[in-house]
Amino acid sequence: AEMLSVDAALDMYRQHVDEQPCCDEGLFGDLLKRYRAGDESAARAISASCLRLAMRMAEARADAFPSWPVLDVVQEANVGLMEAILTFPSSELREFLPHVEDKINRRLTSLA
After folding, report:
1. pLDDT-derived band of residue 1, with 50, 70 and 90 as boundaries?
2. Across the chain, what does the average pLDDT equal?
3. I want to staple 48 with a disulfide (CB 3.0 to 4.6 A). Which of 20, 24, 26, 53 is the partner?
């Protein structure tokens, strides 16, 4: 099997991210309620819908971590996204995306 270049792998991942649906606020609320009720598929849907945010944040900060391959920075942002979903403490939907951004930022800051 032929190995992909980092750029090709990153482009493939970007394409995957672009194919994921974006959630509107109403759908986020429904997904969060379902997740809290034990529906793991809702967590996957929330994660997929937030991949663009994680990708954008990782790419914006990748230059700050020259010793880290960009795909690793993206993966760390995705870990921050999952941490955000697992630890979201509030029922206030408007607090969800700031919580996600905070968790991703904390995860990326820990790379330094």
Report:
1. low
2. 89
3. 20
The residues near 111 (Cβ < 8 Å, ≥ 6 apart) are 65, 68, 73, 76
Burial category of 72 from C-beta neighbours within 10 Å (exposed 0-12, middle 13-18, buried 19 and up): middle
DSSP secondary structure of 11-60: HHHHHHHHTSPPPPHHHHHHHHHHHHTT-HHHHHHHHHHTHHHHHHHHHH
Residues 18-62: pLDDT tens digits?
998 887 777 888 888 898 899 999 989 999 999 999 999 999 998
Q: What is the C-alpha to C-alpha distance for residues 76 and 68, in angstroms, rounded to an integer?
A: 10
What's 4's DSSP letter?
P
